[in-house]
Write a structure and sequence with these properties.
435 residues, TIM Barrel, 8-stranded parallel barrel, 3-stranded antiparallel sheet, 17 helices, disordered N terminus, Dihydroorotate_DH_CS
Length: 435
């Protein structure tokens, strides 16, 4: 008992030191959380129970964040996660949620999309929240300020966000240094929980996009469990033109060559994915699918934000702001693109006109996993993404609104959906609405 008391006193001292080093808003937020969960801490010694209390108590911070400017709130959330001042999930994920993709084991299929932790400042804190994977970036070769502020806008009634940040970030050197600090002797970032994705982009003024992506590979591939080529942000001029068939093929070939020329251990190089936009025609999707199959991409992320304004947001004055729309209004559009891409990359008709036996085998085996992103705010939404063809699912806007408590909620609801419909694993449900 004396040992436990001493341990708690030491933890209390550490918390006090952290509080003193924080800005006033951070101290207020953290003090509130500590006060709310203090009773829980002394009432139980079970880590899982205490973890559950922390996630529940974190909801109290949501109104506080809602009062702040969106970008200030975002910055504060990153700072809190970087300092370990967020709940840490101690409860194991349900077995039905576990899966293996690209030889990597995911404890659950719910990930945090790129754009939240652009500069790899809070990887451990975010993974500790219980995400199956976290994707950092997009990271550009050189630091850049991004577009003028204000550049993030809430559409609270619609559960949406518009941003036109423009790849603001610290650049490759800073991000590589942060990831290097987490590197083990095996020269690979190993995290206590979860998988790390690294999303790379190009600088706004760069005239050679491929060279920028190649630099990103050379600097960051060694730290990645998977790599993402982002060619779909609407906030960097000319970027989406790289989704054209010839442009994308040329870019992927150069990026793959850069990755493959590096020295890799027995696990081989990280899988390579491309993130695409939801604002694509059927012909655009056919071209992207053809490139993905021909060049043997390891996956596609569907999708980025949309430049369209669905009817549900048009009455909101904020919808007139330029930039990419994310959140609930994006769900249907991104799901439609997801289904189309699933069919194009794995469907029977795609096999029929292939003259390559190897390609036929790849299609039948489902060799191009898709990550569904866009408008997910519940376990039911995540389940619909999976049934539409996603193997993994990412969230962003809903997390910005709902905070840490949303993560265990989504996982619990997703497991219930799978069990309700008689599925014994994620694999069994993938693409069932496309058959």
């Amino acid at each position: 008992m004396a040992g436990r008391i001493g341990s708690r006193l030491m933890k209390g001292c550490l918390i006090q030191k952290k509080l003193k080093s924080m800005a006033a808003p951070e101290r207020l937020l953290t003090g509130t959380l500590i006060g709310l969960v203090g009773g829980a801490y002394v009432s139980t010694l079970d880590e899982g129970t205490f973890s559950g209390w922390l996630f529940t108590a974190s909801k109290a911070a949501n109104p506080f964040f809602a009062l702040l400017d969106p970008e200030v709130a975002h910055r504060l959330a990153i700072s809190a996660a970087a300092r370990g001042l967020v709940p840490r999930e101690k409860r194991p994920d349900q077995q039905i949620l576990g899966l293996e993709v690209w030889g990597r084991k995911f404890s659950n299929p719910i990930g945090l999309s790129a754009g939240f932790d652009k500069n790899a400042e809070a990887v451990e804190g975010l993974l500790g929240l219980g995400f199956g994977f976290v994707e950092i970036g997009s990271v550009t070769p050189l630091p850049q300020e991004g577009n003028p502020k204000p550049r993030m806008f809430r559409l609270r009634d619609q559960g949406a966000i518009i941003n036109r940040c423009g790849f603001n970030g610290d650049g490759l050197d800073a991000v590589a240094n942060r990831l290097d600090a987490q590197t083990t002797s095996s020269n690979k970032v190993k995290h206590a929980q979860g998988i790390l994705g690294v999303n790379i982009g190009k600088n706004k003024t760069s005239e050679d996009a491929a060279a920028d992506y190649v630099k990103g590979v050379h600097m960051l591939a060694q730290y990645a469990d998977y790599l993402v080529i982002n060619v779909s942000s609407p906030n960097t001029p000319g970027l989406r033109q790289l989704q054209g068939r010839n442009q994308l093929k040329d870019l992927v070939e150069k990026v793959k060559a850069a990755r493959d020329e590096m020295q890799w251990g027995k696990d081989g190089p990280p899988p390579l994915l491309v993130k695409i936009a939801p604002d694509l025609s059927k012909q655009d999707l056919e071209d992207i699918a053809a490139v993905a199959l021909d060049l043997r991409l390891d996956g596609l992320i569907i999708s980025n934000t949309t430049i369209s304004r669905p009817e549900v947001v048009q009455t909101n004055p904020v919808s007139k702001e330029s930039g990419g729309l994310s959140g609930k209004p994006l769900f249907s559009l991104s799901n439609d693109i997801l289904k189309e891409t699933y069919i194009l990359t794995k469907g029977i008709w795609a096999v029929a006109w292939s003259n390559s036996f190897d390609w036929l085998w790849r299609c039948e085996q489902g060799a191009i996993p898709l990550i569904g992103c866009g408008g997910v705010s519940s376990g039911e939404d995540a389940y619909k993404k999976i049934r539409a063809g996603a193997t993994l699912v990412q969230i962003y806007s809903a997390f910005a609104y709902g905070g840490p408590a949303l993560i265990p909620q989504i996982k619990t609801e997703l497991a219930h959906c799978l069990e309700r419909d008689g599925f014994k694993s994620i694999y069994e449900a993938v693409g069932t609405d496309c058959q």
